[in-house]
Amino acid sequence: MATSTATRGQWGSRMGFIMAATGSAVGLGNIWKFPYITGQNGGGLFVVIYLAAIALVGLPIMIAEIMIGRAAQASPVGAFEGLSKPGSPWSLIGYLGVATSTIVLSYYSIVAGWSLHYAWLSLTGGLSGLDVDAIGNTFGTVHASPGINIGWHFVFIAITSSVVAGGVSGGIERASKILMPALFLLMSVLLFDAFSQPGFWPAVKFVFQPDASEISAAAVLEAVGHSFFTLSLGMGAMLTYGSYLPKDTDIVKTSALISVLDTVIALVACLVLFPVIFTFGMQPQAGPGLVFKSIPIALSQVTGGRFLSIAFFFLLFFAALSSAIAMLEVAASTLIDRRGWTRKRTCAVMAGVTFVLGIPSALSGAGGFFEVGMEKTFGRSFFDLFDYLATNWALPLSAFFMAIFVGWVIPAERRRAEFADTNAGRVIYTVWLTTLRYVCPVAIFVLFLFATGILPETWLGKAPE
Ligand code: TRP
């Protein structure tokens, strides 16, 4: 390792870490993805399963992942090396994290680009005065345009890499301390507005009232998979952020707080979106275009709608940016730690790599090879294939091995030393360790049995549609 721990960055304060880690967790996953998968899976019961997945699998693994980083004070590859026997294959999980975060960032940036484009359209009045059909077509046009997708992808990667180039406390922490409060504020404004819409109570009912007839194994799979994605687990991102933590921070409390904030934002996003859906009689099952079609349509019809629409798409952009920063930091910290590169050089190189890697995803709505050709060969567009491989395979796989690594492999003293030495601390430690050793690996293993088709997906209830 070329640089010593003395030159590693550190968070300026516990609050700074919480903002940055929450910024990583709260992203497109909460505001764009969670509402549309909740819509597709019928609401209430899906939400309950998701909450259970966060508490039983997500939170324990978050504690474990942050712990690996803090115990080793190193980026993912070095952290696994440092905590296991020399020459053992555990460092592969570190490499997997670096690869996954880079791959996810490459297509995450495309969706972030859409939010930038929509923020721009709202700002310049490009969405005003359009009727429902025209707004629906706008999404189709954006999705199919190479120029729009590649252009905003470039802008987004440029912004992300400049923040990361600013360093841990000077760049990432400083940006998060602005982005997160701004996001909470915008969210409150939108929630306040949603509250006055006639669709508000039907939306509350849809999101919070479990309906047992609505569930399938596919929905359970999706809920558990999404709980990793939304908490930024299994890519070494929380590990990397944890490596900048001082020894006296309480990992359990902090992880619990991050999980709660992330969950609250996801639920509030539903309470912002679904009132609109129900007020205007739209379909909750609209899929990935849900946010980009429904928000402009609805907001074009209310007073102050243009302002709200600007607010919403900036919110989406802020949420995406603070997540993208964390994804880039995984590879950045690895190159800085292991190659001794300067932060600036690393960020320039990684910006180039992610930009190029994202081009096939940017072209995935444009017809041609990356959409039509890929669909013929793999049954999905390039974009969807990346997303599928990362979230359905790479994340659960690496979360599984992180649970095993911390639960069974690292020396007990290392594990114990990361916990507060109090009575409450000891009880929590036991509960956490038991969950991590048994519940998490078994749950993820069963998930894989369903995902590979070894267990039929129809087992848990109605067949997926
Ligand atoms: N949690 C982010 C979201 O909900 C997405 C994400 C997944 C992520 N893995 C990550 C962000 C790793 C940063 C780092 O949108």
Describe this structure in words.
The chain is mainly α. Helices cover 76% and strands 0% of the residues. It is built from 19 helices and no strands. It binds tryptophan.
Share of helix among residues?
A: over 70%
Strand content: under 5%
User: Given the helix and strand composition, which structural class is it?
Assistant: mainly alpha
The molecules bound to the chains, other than polymers, are: tryptophan
Weakly predicted, low-confidence segments: 1-6
Rg value = 21 Å
Question: Please, how many helices?
Answer: 19
Number of strands: 0
Q: What sequence of helices (H) and strands (E) makes up the elements? A: HHHHHHHHHHHHHHHHHHH
Short description:
The protein has helices at about 15-25, 30-40, 45-70, 75-85, 90-125, 130-145, 145-165, 170-195, 200-210, 215-230, 235-240, 250-280, 290-300, 305-340, 345-360, 370-380, 380-410, 410-415, 425-450. The longest helix has about 35 residues, at about 305-340. It has about 475 residues and is mostly helical.
Structure keywords:
single chain, 465 residues, mainly alpha, globular, disordered N terminus, binds tryptophan
Topology:
Layout: H1 14-25, H2 28-40, H3 44-72, H4 76-83, H5 91-123, H6 132-144, H7 146-165, H8 168-195, H9 200-208, H10 217-230, H11 237-242, H12 251-279, H13 290-299, H14 305-339, H15 343-362, H16 368-378, H17 382-409, H18 412-417, H19 423-451
Helix pairs in contact: 1-8, 1-12, 1-14, 2-10, 2-12, 3-4, 3-9, 3-10, 3-12, 3-17, 3-19, 4-5, 5-7, 5-14, 5-15, 5-17, 6-13, 7-8, 7-14, 7-15, 8-12, 8-14, 9-12, 10-17, 10-19, 13-14, 14-15, 17-19
Bound molecules: tryptophan.
